[in-house]
Amino acid sequence: MASRGILSLRFNQDQGCFSCATETGLRVYNVDPLALKLRLDKEDVGSVAKVEMLHRTNLIAIVAGGMTPKFAENTVLIWDDRKRKFILEFTFPSAVLAVRLTRERLVVALRTKIFVYSFPHNPQKLMAIDTRPNPNGILEVCPSTDRTLLAFPGHKQGSVQLVDLVSAEPGKSTAPVTINAHQGDIHCIAINQEGSLVATASTKGTLIRVFDSTYRKQVVELRRGSDPATLYCINFSNDSSYLCASSDKGTVHIFALKDTSLNRRSSLAKVGLLGPYAESQWGITNFTVPAECACVCAFGPQSSVVAVCIDGTFHKYIFSPEGSCNRQAYDEYLELGDEDEF
């Protein structure tokens, strides 16, 4: 997913900011209005593979990578932008594939293991979870302090394992909860703000299934398309009314969750014909970014969805429950200059 030196893109917990890891350092942007908020160059941090923000605080997790790294790929460094220096360092047995932060936890995925630490004060290792081979570092953590839910691919192909991190204490084991979500390997996971819903997609990328995390029951099945695609991103709106998803086809799909009658249905179902797509719910609308390149997507204010692309472009679309969708803003975020602090 690399282009123009961009190695990864990721939104923060409330989708109000996004981070950009590049061959020349890292950048953090505010979404609305679009503005550059932090820039660390190659001289500061080397080339960076992954960046994880802690909401809008001064703490940022960094994993080195790319062509000119300054640090080892098995290390997570915590940058304090108020102090303008690294304040914590975590080293692991193998390459770090993903890192997630909450106000109380740091979670790191390796190829076959997930580590959970208390964070940020006096960090201690709380859990070490063995996983099935997870080469893409697929995992997600709910940002809620009431229910800090961790989700990652389970041991059985196509399953998702849920762990409640609130009860994670040193030496204390938590009974895992497993949801059998797909037949193929899990490729994308999202958790809503409250931790009550988990969305999943497999490597096939045609279906997104949404589950109730407490009762492990499927709430709705959403169809992105009939042809396979690689999903890069799934996100819930902050109130869980909608869900968006982006794929390698450069298309962002928007689905209704609270009022699923807004979703389009197959014409086969309307005439009474049954088939593989008859019961599917298709998105209320979608849009394709002009370059048709990989992007991540999230919800902005006033019924908007933003797409941040690896070609350095930023797109904002306004959608309606009736299915209209119009581009409101376009920008090239790599060209933006430094702005004030948050």
Which properties best describe this structure?
342 residues, mainly beta, 6-stranded mixed beta sheet, 4-stranded antiparallel beta sheet, 2 helices, 30 strands, 2% helix, 50% strand
Give a quick precis of the structure:
By secondary structure, the protein is mostly beta strands. It has two helices and 30 strands.
Q: What does this protein look like?
A:
The protein is mainly β and 342 residues long. 2% of the residues lie in helices and 50% in strands. The protein is built from two helices and 30 strands. The strands form seven sheets. A six-stranded mixed beta sheet has the order 17-18-19-20-25-24. It has a four-stranded antiparallel beta sheet with strand order 1-2-3-4. Strands 5-6-7-8 form a four-stranded antiparallel beta sheet. It is globular, with a radius of gyration of 19 Å. The two termini are 28 Å apart.
